[in-house]
Write a structure and sequence with these properties.
Low-confidence stretches of chain A: 1-7, 468-497
Number of strands of chain A: 0
Mean pLDDT of chain B: 88
CATH architecture of chain B: Orthogonal Bundle
Low-confidence stretches of chain B: 474-503
Oligomer: heterotrimer
Distance between the termini of chain B: 72 Å
Shape of chain A: globular
Helix content of chain A: 55-70%
GO molecular function, one term (chain B): ammonium channel activity
CATH topology of chain A: Ammonium transporter fold
Number of helices of chain A: 17
Largest sheet of chain B: none
Radius of gyration of chain A: 27 Å
InterPro entries (chain B): Ammonium/urea_transptr (IPR029020), Ammonium_transpt (IPR001905), Ammonium_transpt_CS (IPR018047), NH4_transpt_AmtB-like_dom (IPR024041)
CATH superfamily of chain A: Ammonium transporter AmtB like domains
Shape of chain B: elongated
Number of domains of chain A: 1
Family (chain B): Belongs to the ammonia transporter channel (TC 1.A.11.2) family.
Largest sheet of chain A: none
Organism (chain B): Chara braunii
Structural class of chain A: mainly alpha
Radius of gyration of chain B: 27 Å
Distance between the termini of chain A: 71 Å
CATH topology of chain B: Ammonium transporter fold
Strand content of chain A: under 5%
Order of helices and strands of chain B: HHHHHHHHHHHHHHHH
Mean pLDDT of chain A: 88
CATH class of chain A: Mainly Alpha
Number of strands of chain B: 0
Order of helices and strands of chain A: HHHHHHHHHHHHHHHHH
Pfam families (chain B): Ammonium_transp
CATH superfamily of chain B: Ammonium transporter AmtB like domains
Number of domains of chain B: 1
């Protein structure tokens, strides 16, 4: 942007020259003022456009919380819906407070080192709109990460345990990973053309297949693994029993809202649109995201038809989301045909992971680990194979690295592998300890009685869907409403029961 | 506006007049000339964002269709219809990517008048070409998915899933793109953008697709629903209509509201740019399109409310929702070229059109669970014709870049040419869709791939084709788990007292 | 913006200077044309960007209608859902017509006086795009105001009464209040640096804690108060009986959609983003909104756990919305930490209001008066205490007024108080009369019989959730479908009933 950034300097430099025209009877100051007004308006307008883009993208990412809430509610039994929806509300609400106090500082604070950020706690040094808009965008991502994990441990976890791990995840575990990959100071990052990068490449994770989805999925895995499967999920001989969610409608609604929100998640991660290159990248992200999810959904549709002889809508929805989780790392770097290929692979990855986890009697009501962990890992590695060199250069303003199949060099793939492994280890270690401690203090799993009765009744004060049994007839003597009313009421109710 | 050599010479002259040295002169030139690119960047970014977010809003209409359809059918078929809505977007993306987009917009002005033939699978993507970039693909894909979504409503509750897959791919991949090519591509034979060979001096004015999208989807649905016949029990042995209520009014309202939300991408977004390259204040048109859309829908809803109250004695929310959508489907063609008061009039007419079409459908024993043909076909046609009557000249010039002397709305004194173009366009759309989709549905019927068996219909598609029910109830007292465990599993501990235990 | 505003003048002024150089061989006309072309394309880009921003914000505010509809539907009993959702659809649809015909004219018509606007009825003098975009934005606000009121009187109001008060509210009562505060001609406004303001300050209500939420809440209060509580809400001894809404899922869905839409409501109220100052204000609004809602939700979670021993999701949702209603006035003027504090206070305000209203046997199915009226009032006053001077100056381009704790001067607080009181009086007077008249003509409350049977059955032609009793088996003789089909159908249905 050069001169445009420094309004005052623009004015001085240009004015000094143009003022020389005054000797010719020309009002050079007027000319200079005009030029510098143009410059500053343009800077302002560009700022505005980028802020607008980041904010709207953040709102879309936030809309994914609505999607998670509906998807989770539909995927569990009616007796646990209030519980899981409350966790989704708090992923966003409590997540906002912990991300405000410490999370953002650990992730993007400017005084940190390669491993962890520092500063900006409680926004104490926020100055410009860039800080504000980044915070909103990053908070929405942190909430998504916590939302993923809460799916794995649904239907059998104490609410206190949820409060503890969720705060820990959004406040510390996730921010540190995002610092590594997305802060220009992080040790894994591919940003900042000036610095040294891991394997001269750095890890490339555009919108967070690794940073968000793997972290959320693996965190969920440890919780679900340590507390064991839901009662009745595997029978005495270890055969899987279907435990169906209570509403397919909510599953579809949730999946659609997640799809909608993913257009903030992936294209929005460019965090700028006010220049031609960014605009191209953003549009490419939108199309690769669409195609990958679509290919995964279609693959799942036919695969499931072959495997179980049904056109299964819940499976198609999960396949769709698996495709999205996979493309998240590479949406800006792969060509549209590669996105279709990735979607195909993601669908099979999810099917394979589900079969595998069934073997291990691992129970995940939302398939969150299989989906976000498995397809997320696939997506991270896929960039190492099919990330196009030109596209990578567009994003990072530095060339000479890219996927194995384009460049013939495995440097990027190696960086992706190292990144994935470190993310797995870090999340497993911290979240494993966290859940193990909760278990040791008996704060993790609810009692069998509570599980059978359902969390809504035992912890949340009643059912999500109360019947109409509160009607006034019970509170008044039969004559209170007069005879007509009474008989009317009886007729109505008897026809309803 | 480009910084050319003449301009650079002028700047150099200024520099010499100010007695600047060579370096300072270069600074001045760079500074002034640099604006071209920077302002270009801001304009590109704003327009790209406008197009993409409009596409996202149009996509949100799929969520709306999904919920509206689910609520409008019986619970036993909810999964089925929602799956078709998911696949409209997902399978539609693949077929529209591979060939649909090329049929519709490939080749720009070079392609022939009937069908596009270039840029299959985005093989010739170009960021600079307004018709071959990724953002435009996103926007057009969302439209194609909407057309397929309309159709799936008409044939709900009685169609084989295989039949659905076949027609949906055919519609999004071929039938719809050809119509879009006619009306919206620069080389289309009836296109208002066909500057080289303008049909009746004006072309068909269908701004966001009352004809291209809604009539196509509605008529395709009609052919399907007509060929397979009404649902079992829809008309009794004496031919009287039996009410078959959808299972959830809540979902109907949710879906309608989401469609309304998405329509703000569909109509105003169809300008595809909000900052002009040609000096016309496009943002004014966009804002006006949002206003006319709102008013037409609002008027249609209110008209339906009172009309139905008068006819049935009830304030009926699902009818109001359908009326609202009818108003939107009607204003889609003219949202950028009619005045706000005309939008209200159009909404009023749309409500009565829908009521009349429903009467007619009942008379001929046509069964459409979503009223999709009546609504999208009927009100869509109304909207197309209405433009021929009340398109305002100045708006037409703004929105379509028409020059002085262009035909415009009949009632404003613009002659009958526009109306003729609208009518011919509507007839061709109806004929093309009816023939192609009719043949397809008929073939499916012949091969036994269209309608499910009576047994399946009675049991519901969710159970027979999808192995599931949309709603699995449990009693909150153990449900499925209790059955799997030995009865004494919990005896060691105290029995549960409901709600007494709090942790 | 200076020269940028007046395209034609730009040309003249610059050309006059440059033409003086023609003697030196400078093509001054060409240069001037180029520079002014640049300026005008920048202006149109700015216009486009701002229009886009206002429109998207309006769409988000409209999305709040979806939220209201779902929240209301979930919060009432199943037998009244169609009724309340119809009112929500009509708040937007019928509201569009009354706001088109008269509402916008009363609010922003240019020929009015300090008290009420005039002109622009039925858009007859709309010229520029600014009119159209403003109309869309303001219409969405008017609909929100009506949506609030319809919650208070749910489950017991005649549909005719709804049509009357709703038209009156969006067509007259609300527009007049918005004229006072948001039109530059209004007597309460803080806009327009040139004019005299109340207490040299004017009332500061950025997005409408007073103008929208208090008006809606108080209108609802009078309706609910005059028709009395629902049957069975208070038993013969005056003890409160819980009447639960029929679906927690819909409550959560609605709250999330409202949260989503609030990002149009609050940040969108800047109605411009194409300059740096606006961009900063918009981003700050997004942050304060998020933090205030989040703090209120978390406070409510723990407060309710202490008070009633449940983790209550419906209460958390209401607390969240209370936080949003409170921050709406001050989102642009308070610092992030103050937003957290305000959220904390809003949660307790709502809890207190609920306890108080229970004492008075006031019944409000959505807690709309307590929430929008109570927390809205809190938000209006809070700006008088903690509105930061610098931030106020950013928005209004005039300094020297702000919150008591920053400036030590109570002028702003006094203006806020006067504004709040006048809004209360105006709304109470007009809506009180309106509801009293409806009551006098017996058009307000439904009969006891109807109330027991539910509005859906008596006024809307059937239940919102009809059972599957339309299945063909009833219409055909048992043998018509063949034996297999019949038994199949029976199995399915018997398991469903």
């Amino acid at each position: 942007m050069g001169v445009l950034d420094a309004d005052g300097e623009c004015f001085t430099a240009i004015r000094d020259e143009l003022v020389k025209l005054e000797s010719q009877g020309v009002n050079g100051t007027l000319l200079a003022t005009h030029l510098c007004d143009l410059a500053s308006s343009l800077v302002s307008s560009t700022y505005g456009l980028n802020t607008f883009f980041v904010l709207i993208s953040a709102y879309l990412v936030f809309a994914m919380q609505i999607g998670f809430a509906m998807l989770c509610a539909g995927s569990v039994r009616a007796k646990n819906t209030m519980n899981i929806m409350l966790t989704n509300v708090l992923d966003a609400a409590a997540g906002a407070l912990s991300y405000y106090l410490v999370g953002y500082g650990f992730a993007y604070g400017k005084d940190g080192n390669k491993f962890i950020g520092s500063g900006s706690f409680a926004m104490h040094d926020f100055k410009s709109d860039v800080d504000y808009r980044n915070w909103i965008f990053q908070w929405a991502f942190a909430a998504a990460s916590a939302g993923i994990a809460s799916g794995s441990i649904a239907e059998r976890t104490q609410f206190t345990a949820y409060l503890v791990y969720s705060t820990f995840l959004t406040g510390f575990v996730y921010p540190v990973v995002s610092h590594w990959v997305w802060s220009p100071y992080g040790w894994l990052t591919a940003l900042d053309p000036e610095k040294e990068h891991l394997f001269k490449s750095g890890m490339v994770d555009f919108a967070g297949s690794g940073v968000v989805h793997m972290v959320g999925g693996i965190a969920g895995f440890w919780g679900a693994f340590l507390e064991g499967p839901r009662l009745g999920r595997f029978d005495v001989r270890g055969r899987k029993q279907e435990i169906k969610g209570h509403s397919g409608t909510l599953i579809v609604l949730g999946s659609f809202l997640l799809w909608f929100g993913w257009y903030g998640f992936n294209p929005g991660s460019q965090v700028a649109i006010a220049d031609q290159v960014s605009a191209i990248i953003v549009a490419r992200c939108a199309i690769t995201t669409t195609l990958c999810g679509a290919a995964a959904a279609v693959t799942t549709l036919f695969a499931k038809k072959l495997l179980v002889a049904h056109w299964s809508v819940a499976d198609v929805c999960n396949g769709l989301l698996g495709g999205f989780a996979a493309i998240t790392a590479g949406c800006a770097f792969v060509e549209p045909w590669a996105a279709v290929l990735l979607g195909f692979l993601a669908a099979w990855t999810l099917i394979g992971m589900n079969a595998l986890m069934e073997k291990f009697q691992y129970d995940d009501p939302l398939e969150a680990f299989q989906l976000h962990g498995g397809c997320g890992l696939l997506g991270v590695l896929f960039v190492g194979l099919l990330g196009k060199e030109d596209y990578v250069e567009q994003v990072f303003s530095r060339g000479n690295f890219g996927g194995l199949f384009y460049t013939g060099s495995g440097r990027l793939l190696a960086a992706q592998l190292v990144g994935a492994i470190v993310i797995i280890l870090w999340t497993s270690l911290l979240m494993g300890i966290c859940f193990a401690l909760l278990k040791a203090f008996n704060l993790l799993r609810i009692s069998q009685e509570d599980e059978i009765a359902g969390l809504d009744l035992t912890r949340h004060g009643g059912s999500n869907y109360p019947g109409d049994d509160h009607h006034p007839a019970k509170l008044y003597p039969p004559t209170a409403l007069g005879q007509a009313a009474d008989s009317n009421a009886k007729n109505v109710y008897s026809s309803k029961v | 506006m480009a910084c050319n050599s003449t301009l650079e010479a002028a700047l150099a002259a200024v520099a010499s007049a100010a007695k600047l040295d060579v370096n300072q002169s270069a600074v001045l030139t760079d500074f002034v000339c640099g604006y071209d690119g920077r302002i270009g960047d801001a304009v590109t970014g704003t327009n790209a964002m406008f197009l993409l977010f409009s596409a996202y809003l149009v996509f949100a209409m799929q969520a709306g269709f999904g919920m509206l359809c689910a609520g409008s059918v019986r619970a036993k078929n909810a999964l089925n219809i929602m799956l078709t809505n998911v696949m409209d977007a997902a399978a539609g993306a693949i077929s529209f990517f591979v060939f649909g987009f090329a049929f519709a917009f490939g080749g720009g002005a070079e392609s022939n008048a009937f069908i596009g033939d270039y840029n299959f699978a985005q093989s010739h993507f170009s960021a600079d070409d307004a018709l071959a970039n990724y953002g435009m693909w996103m926007f057009q894909w969302a439209f194609a998915a909407a057309a397929a979504g309309i159709t799936s409503g008409s044939i709900a509750e009685r169609t084989q899933f295989t039949g659905y897959l076949a027609y949906s791919t055919f519609l999004t991949g071929f039938v719809y793109p050809v119509i879009a090519h006619w009306v919206w591509a620069p080389s289309g034979w009836i296109s208002a953008f066909n500057t080289g060979n303008m049909f009746l001096d004006v072309g068909m004015v269908d701004f966001a697709g009352s004809g291209v999208v809604h009539m196509t989807g509605g008529i395709a649905g009609f052919m399907g629903a007509w060929i397979e016949g009404p649902r079992l029990g829809r008309f009794d042995a004496k031919g009287r209509t039996q009410e078959m209520k959808g299972h959830s009014g809540t979902l109907v309202v949710l879906g309608t509201f989401l469609l309304w939300f998405g329509w703000y991408g569909f109509n105003p977004g169809s300008l595809t740019a909000i900052v002009p390259a040609d000096g016309v204040l496009k943002h004014a048109i966009v804002a006006r399109a949002a206003v006319t859309t709102t008013l037409s829908g609002g008027a249609a809803a209110l008209t339906t409310l009172f009309a139905r109250r008068w006819m049935t004695g009830h304030w009926n929310v699902t009818d109001v929702c359908n009326g609202l959508l009818g108003g939107f489907a009607a204003v889609t063609a003219g949202c950028s070229v009619i005045e706000p008061w005309a939008a209200i009039l159009l909404g009023f007419l749309a409500a009565w059109t829908l009521i009349g079409m429903n009467r007619l459908a009942e008379r001929i024993k046509y069964d459409d669970p979503l009223e999709a043909f009546q609504l999208h076909g009927g009100c869509g046609l109304l909207g197309v014709v209405f433009v021929g009557l009340l398109a305002k000249k100045s708006f037409l010039m703004e929105a379509y870049g028409k020059v002085e002397g262009t035909p415009y709305g009949l009632f404003y004194g613009g002659g009958g040419k526009l109306l003729a173009a609208q009518l011919i366009g509507a007839i061709c759309i109806a004929a093309w869709t009816a023939v192609t989709m009719g043949v397809l549905f008929y073939a499916l019927q012949m091969f036994g791939l269209l309608r499910i068996t009576q047994e399946e219909e009675a049991a519901g598609l969710d159970l027979t084709a999808h192995g599931n029910s949309s709603y699995v109830f449990d009693d909150g007292k153990g449900g499925q788990d209790a059955k799997l465990l030995p009865p004494d599993a919990f005896q060691a501990k105290a029995p549960v007292k409901q709600g007494t235990e709090r942790v």
